[in-house]
Amino acid sequence: MKILYIMVGVGFSGKSTLAKQIVEYKNAVLVSQDDLWFEKEKEWDLSLDSDEDWDRVLQISKQRVRENLAEGESVVFDHVNLRHNHREELINMAKSYNARAVIIYLDTPIDIQKERQIKNKETKERHDVKQEELDDAIKELEIPEESENVFVFKPETNLESFLERLPQ
Fold first, then answer.
1. Which of 29, 8, 31 lies closest to 77, judged by CA?
2. Contacts of 20 by beta carbon, 8 Å cutoff, 6+ apart
3. 126 within 8 A of 78, measured Cβ to Cβ
4. Domain ranges for the chain
């Protein structure tokens, strides 16, 4: 059965790193909003980092999720998905393609997130996130509840065991 793995967490929680591991382990397709941002950055002149630009990228990301599900692929959607209604939309999208939705919440302490943010300022491995946006995301986060059949990943979680427990 095809699966839509829905990553949930604020910036620097480890979503992208875990998403890549899931893609490899489960032979799924990665749809990453950050990757799409870098892909479209010069083409669309996204240097302003506006909410409208992020929404544009999000809409294309969702379209790519739909396309891959329609082709029978399992998909890992690497985006913050902070609010319950965001996840509900994705769950309904999965259902419309006869796919199962799996919520993966990265429960990463703020001090670890801040360390990763500081390191990223040096390495520039990913898109930088302004501190006020991170603070807003933390406030906006609606932690997934058990009723969402959530799989929780913490920094101390054994990766291999976690990947084995995920549905395929």
1. 31
2. 30
3. no
4. 3-165
pLDDT per residue as tens digits for the range 18-59: 999 999 999 999 999 888 777 766 676 666 566 777 788 889
In whole angstroms, what is the distance from residue 111 CA to residue 119 CA?
12
Chosen CATH of 3-165 out of 3.20.20.210, 3.40.50.300, 1.10.730.10, 3.20.20.140: 3.40.50.300
What is the Cα 114 distance to its own chain's centre? 18
Question: Residue 71 has which token pair?
Answer: 């082709």
Burial class (CB in 10 A: 0-12, 13-18, 19+), 52: exposed
The token pair at 2 is 């095809």
Angle at 19 between CA 17 and CA 24, to 5 degrees: 100
The encoded tokens of residue 136 equal 């807003």
Regarding pTM above 0.85, the answer is yes
Name every residue whose Cβ is closer than 8 Å to that of residue 5 and which is 6 or more positions away in sequence: 19, 22, 26, 28, 74, 75, 76, 77, 102, 104, 166
